[in-house]
C-alpha cells in the first residue's frame, strides 16, 4: 500500500482528521456505557452503504491508568495503553493516517521487514474465509534500508512507539537487520517474526523448534539493547517449551499468536486457490486457539505476553487479559474498521470506570489457575 504523505498526529492535525467522513465499516459495535461518564453519539455508514447507523460511545474517564510496560527488565518499553496494532495490518503506521489518530494507539507493530527487498508470493495472495481470512503475502517489503530512510524520520516525530517486526531466513539475517535498527531514533523496539523458514535447518521454521527459537532470540539479544518481543507460532503441538526457550534467551516479551497454516480450494476445485498454496489464517476464527496458547504460555513464563488473534470488540480484549495477556494487538479487523483500535482504548477505560477500577491491571489473569495446569497436549479435553 502506498504511504500517504500526510500523517495525523496530535493537536490541530488530529482535530482536522475528526472532521473527515469516517470510512465504511462492516459492523458497528456499542461500547459499554456506564452511568458516570458522559456519552456522545456518533454516526457511521451502514455495512450496506445506505442509511447511517447510530452508536453510543462513552467518553473515557481520564483517571483510569491504562499504561503498560512491555520490557520491565530492560529499562522499559512503556506504552500509554495496551492496545497495539498487529504487524501486516497497519503498514508502517502512516497508511491509515488520514482516518486514524495514530498517536492514540499504545504502539504500532509495523509491517514485517527483511534484510533485502522482497516482492512477495505469486497471486492470488488473499481470500476471505468464514470468520476470517487467509493471506499469503510472502513478506513483501522494500527492505530494511528503505524502511529506515523513508519511515524512521516520521516515527521519530511521533509519541506513539513503533516496534519493527523483523523476519529472516537465517540467524545472520535477523542479526543484521536488528543491528541496523539499533540506536535509530523512532525505533522503540523489535518484534521477531520467527515463523520463517530456517535455511540452516532445511527450511524448518524457527518458531516450531525450541532450540532454533532460543538460538535466534539469543543472537538478536546480543546484537541490540532494544526491547525485544518474539512472536510465537500456533502451528506446534506444545508451545510451552518454545516460550520457555525464548524467555531464557533474553526476550523481554512474547507475542502470541501468529497465523495458523491453512489452504483454500479454487472455485473449480482443480487446485489450491492461493498462488503459494498455503496461507496464514487470521481473524475471529482463530480466537479460541489464541486464547488457549496465551493461557498456557502465561502460566510458564514471567515476561509479559501480548495477545493477538481475532479481536473485534472489547469483550475479546477482556478475554485475553483474563488469560494472562498484559496487552493485545488488533489485526485483521482493521481491514473492516480502521478506527477499531482507538475505539477499544476508550472502551477499555470506560469499562474500568464502570467497575470502579483506577487501572486495568486487576483484569489481568483472572481466569488463570492458582497453579499451572496440565497442557492441552495431555488430551484433557477428551476426558469423559
What does the model show?
Helix 4 links the parallel strand 9 and strand 10. With 384 residues, the chain is an alpha/beta fold. 44% of the residues are buried. An 8-stranded parallel beta barrel has the order 5-6-9-10-13-14-17-18, surrounded by 6 helices.
Order of helices and strands: HEEEEEEEEHHEHEEEHEHEEEHEHEHH
Number of helices: 10
Output the structural class.
alpha/beta
Residue share in helix:
10-25%
> Describe the biggest sheet?
8 strands, parallel, barrel
Widest beta sheet: strand line-up? 5-6-9-10-13-14-17-18
**Spatial extent as radius of gyration:** 20 Å
> What is the approximate shape?
globular
- Total strands: the figure is 18
**Which stretches of 5+ consecutive residues score pLDDT under 50?**
1-57
Beta-strand content estimate? 15-25%
CA-CA gap between termini: 51 Å
Overall average residue pLDDT: 86
Q: What's a quick, concise take on this entry?
A:
This protein is an alpha/beta fold.
Which descriptors apply to this entry?
384 residues, alpha/beta, eight-stranded parallel barrel, 24% helix
Q: Mind sketching the topology for me?
A:
Layout: H1 12-18, E1 39-45, E2 52-58, E3 68-69, E4 78-79, E5 83-85, E6 107-109, E7 126-129, E8 132-135, H2 144-150, H3 152-157, E9 162-166, H4 171-181, E10 189-193, E11 197-198, E12 204-205, H5 210-223, E13 228-231, H6 240-248, E14 253-256, E15 260-262, E16 279-282, H7 287-298, E17 305-308, H8 314-322, E18 327-330, H9 333-336, H10 340-354
Parallel strand pairs: 5-6, 5-18, 6-9, 9-10, 10-13, 13-14, 14-17, 17-18
Antiparallel strand pairs: 1-2, 3-4, 7-8, 8-16, 11-12, 15-16
Helix pairs in contact: 4-5, 5-6
Amino acid at each position: 500500500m502506498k504511504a500517504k504523505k500526510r500523517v495525523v498526529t496530535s493537536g490541530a492535525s488530529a482535530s482536522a482528521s475528526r472532521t473527515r467522513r469516517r470510512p465504511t465499516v462492516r459492523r458497528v459495535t456499542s461500547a459499554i456505557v456506564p452511568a458516570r461518564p458522559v456519552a456522545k453519539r456518533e454516526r457511521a455508514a451502514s455495512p450496506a452503504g445506505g442509511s447511517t447507523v447510530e452508536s453510543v460511545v462513552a467518553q473515557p474517564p481520564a483517571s483510569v491508568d491504562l499504561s503498560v510496560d512491555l520490557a520491565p527488565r530492560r529499562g522499559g518499553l512503556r506504552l500509554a495503553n495496551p492496545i497495539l496494532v498487529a504487524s501486516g495490518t497497519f503498514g508502517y503506521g502512516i497508511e491509515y493516517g488520514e482516518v486514524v489518530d495514530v498517536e492514540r494507539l499504545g504502539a504500532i507493530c509495523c509491517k514485517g521487514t527483511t534484510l533485502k527487498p522482497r516482492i512477495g508470493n505469486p497471486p492470488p495472495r488473499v481470500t476471505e474465509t468464514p470468520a476470517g481470512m487467509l493471506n499469503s503475502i510472502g513478506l513483501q517489503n522494500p527492505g530494511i534500508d528503505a524502511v529506515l530512510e523513508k519511515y524512521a524520520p516520521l516515527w521519530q516525530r511521533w509519541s506513539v512507539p513503533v516496534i519493527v517486526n523483523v523476519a529472516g531466513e537465517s540467524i545472520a539475517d535477523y542479526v543484521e537487520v536488528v543491528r541496523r535498527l539499533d540506536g535509530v531514533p523512532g525505533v522503540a523496539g523489535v518484534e521477531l517474526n520467527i515463523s520463517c523458514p530456517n535455511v540452516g535447518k532445511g527450511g524448518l521454521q524457527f518458531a516450531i523448534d525450541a532450540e532454533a527459537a532460543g538460538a535466534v532470540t539469543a543472537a538478536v539479544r546480543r546484537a541490540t539493547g532494544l526491547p525485544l518481543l518474539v512472536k510465537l507460532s500456533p502451528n506446534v503441538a506444545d508451545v510451552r517449551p518454545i516460550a520457555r526457550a525464548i524467555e531464557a534467551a533474553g526476550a523481554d516479551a512474547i507475542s502470541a499468536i501468529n497465523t495458523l497454516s491453512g489452504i483454500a480450494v479454487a472455485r473449480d476445485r482443480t487446485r489450491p486457490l492461493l498462488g503459494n498454496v498455503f496461507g496464514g489464517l487470521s481473524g475471529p476464527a482463530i480466537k479460541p486457539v489464541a486464547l488457549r496458547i496465551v493461557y498456557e504460555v502465561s502460566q510458564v513464563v514471567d515476561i509479559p505476553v501480548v495477545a493477538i488473534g481475532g479481536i473485534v470488540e472489547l469483550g475479546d480484549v477482556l478475554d485475553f487479559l483474563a488469560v494472562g495477556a498484559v496487552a493485545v494487538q488488533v489485526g485483521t479487523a482493521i481491514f473492516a474498521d480502521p478506527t477499531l483500535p482507538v475505539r477499544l482504548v476508550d472502551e477499555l477505560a470506560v469499562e474500568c470506570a464502570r467497575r470502579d477500577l483506577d487501572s486495568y491491571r486487576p483484569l489481568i489473569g483472572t481466569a488463570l489457575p492458582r497453579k499451572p495446569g496440565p497442557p492441552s497436549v495431555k488430551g484433557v479435553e477428551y476426558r469423559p
